[in-house]
Q: What sequence folds into this?
């Protein structure tokens, strides 16, 4: 009887291993290095496209902004010196076209809008471009996709990683009290 009890006890001890944790399924989605390489190649391709547009456009003198866009003035204000600062309220309009000059959004589609500088959502390139213009100026900007709508697009008319061209007109700048001293 003792032997049976020991055998049953040994079988019980060795057969109860407890629950085993499930191991996660390993899925490799890529690494950061490949993503960085892909983005560098895309930016190089878009910069080459911008260079071709600038070379073909001998009628305008382009300026490279510190943020990576290129632009030329359509209408320039040589008398004013003030450019918008954060918190200023600007009245503006803009359009968006492809690098092939196909209209994506016209100025009529977008309309005239009031924008509080650096406090409201616009695509990154436009947020930076507004601060380069003076009252009454119009300029055309060339943006790589990273400064436009990026890898999401606008989920309507602008696709994934699409570089764009925008013509921006700044009608009015309402300075804020803390910016008047500057």
A:
């Amino acid at each position: 009887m003792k032997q049976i009890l020991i055998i049953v006890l040994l079988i019980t001890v060795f057969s109860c291993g407890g629950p085993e944790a499930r191991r996660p399924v390993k899925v490799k989605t890529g690494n950061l290095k490949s993503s960085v390489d892909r983005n560098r190649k895309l930016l190089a391709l878009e910069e080459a496209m911008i260079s071709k547009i600038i070379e073909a456009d001998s009628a305008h003198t382009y300026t490279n902004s510190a943020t990576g866009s290129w632009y030329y003035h359509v209408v320039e204000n040589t008398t004013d010196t003030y450019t918008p600062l954060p918190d200023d309220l600007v009245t503006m309009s803009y359009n968006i076209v492809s690098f092939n000059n196909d209209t994506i959004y016209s100025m009529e589609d977008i309309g005239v809008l009031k924008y509080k500088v650096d406090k409201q959502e616009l695509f990154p390139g436009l947020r930076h471009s507004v601060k380069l213009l003076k009252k009454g100026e119009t300029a055309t900007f060339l943006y790589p996709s990273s400064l436009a709508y990026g890898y999401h697009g606008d989920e309507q008319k602008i696709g994934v990683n699409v570089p764009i061209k925008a013509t921006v007109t700044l009608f009015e700048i309402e300075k804020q009290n803390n910016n008047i001293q500057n």
